[in-house]
Amino acid sequence: MDLLDLTSRSYEHCKLLRETTEAVEAEVTELRGTLSDEVADLSKQVRCVNNAIKNLKTDLLDAVKNEVQKFIATKKERQYVDLTLESDGGNGKPVRCARASARSVGGKLKVPAFPDITKPKKKTTKCRAGPFTVGIHVSPEDSMLVDYVFCTGKEGGDEKIAMIICTFLTREDILTLAPNSPLSTLILDTVVEKLTWADRDKTKRECAFLPVTFAAKASGNRDDLRSFISLEHVKTLYCTDIRDCEAIFIPIYMGNHFVLCVVNLKKQQYCLWDSLPSCMEKTEINQKLVDIMAALDVLFFDDGAAWFHDVSSFLAFEYNPTNDAPRQPNTWDCGMFVINWMKCGRSLNKKTAKCMGKRFNSEDERLKLVLELIDCTPNEKTALLDRARELVA
């Protein structure tokens, strides 16, 4: 009797437990449906907000364009030369003339030949944008940005102006791109990061780029170099998928002068590109190059990994001196030359470098680089443009 009673009770408990489980499952199903509906509603609201933001941006851009067109139209009107009407003294017909140059001949008014002054003057090839006088087209929006970044009355040298992935540039950094100014090393490190991410988007990486700070650490203690490589995530940021790379570009800053070390992985050679060779001691730069080769061994082979097909040590590479680098026309554009050489990538050679040297215009190149850096992050550029408009207003 006790056994039957125990069995009956166990059955009741199991039945109750099953009913409870079914009820819980039903509630869970209902909650899932409710959450799914709420998520769908939230997604719909987010889309609506995004569309509203997009429309607002379009309206703002249209408003700016209209204001710019009005401003340009006003300037054109001011360029017209005021004309006066004079009577010829005979038939009373008005004669269009410039008062200062008209003269009377034989009782009649005679106007000397001159171009149609009712047409606005042709624009000059040069234009102004902030501190730059350039021969390239600059949109009104870009001109406003440049004015804001370089305006002399604006305080806040630590204001963030541009950002790539891990590096951001303040106004103080960007100001080193002003005409006749030596570049900050952070400008070159930012360009290196930009070129690295652009190259990583390709199906097959052609070149690798290392920051100026890597070359600076190359001559120090090996433990300090390893610590730098680890803390700054050099391998992750700059050395991903470079097994098939053809060249490594390493900008160097020594004695207030920038030069470029190019390592050819296929030929197992390295060379130096220097736009002002007389600026540094030969023995000093040669030792720096050897230190960099040793630092590359630490970077790539310390962990025993096979980074490249046929390379076992960079110290075994042959130094191939080059005298093909074009000369900079001043004492402050070495950084710009190094940046332009890095942009060439694997196509950098005597011919391309010579061509670039002939076409080089310091202010044009500097302004283009400023706009490229500002364009890197659209959100940052939009915020910067908003601050520029507030300043103008």
TrEMBL record:
Gene Ontology biological process: protein desumoylation; proteolysis
Residues annotated as domain Ubiquitin-like protease family profile: 167-345
Chain segments annotated as transmembrane: none
Keywords of this entry: Hydrolase, Protease, Thiol protease
InterPro entries associated with the record: Papain-like_cys_pep_sf, Peptidase_C48_C
Pfam families: Peptidase_C48
Taxonomy, superkingdom: Eukaryota
Recorded GO CC terms: nucleus
Gene Ontology MF terms in the entry: deSUMOylase activity
Family label: Belongs to the peptidase C48 family.
UniProt-recorded name of the protein: Ubiquitin-like protease family profile domain-containing protein
Organism: Linum trigynum
